[in-house]
Design a protein that fits this description.
Structural class: mainly alpha
Mean pLDDT: 80
Low-confidence stretches: none
Helix content: 40-55%
Number of domains: 1
Number of strands: 2
Order of helices and strands: EHHEH
Strand order of the largest sheet: 1-2
Length: 59
């Protein structure tokens, strides 16, 4: 699983609590992650691409 990281490592990068990432995932929002057992790893490039794709006025 090289190149992927658990959401807790991306939470500080995005400036949101880990629970927010979990909530986003259940609502189909946020960076794409793949469930592996009880974990949801994210590819760092996917997190960055998702973040950069946000509108400057995104709520």
């Amino acid at each position: 699983m090289s190149g992927q990281k658990h959401r807790s490592r991306h939470s500080p990068y995005l400036g949101v609590p880990v629970k927010t990432l979990y909530d986003w995932r259940t609502k189909g929002y946020g960076p794409e992650g793949k469930r592996v057992g009880k974990y949801v790893p994210y590819k760092p490039d996917d997190v960055i691409a998702w973040f950069e794709s946000l509108d400057d006025h995104a709520a």
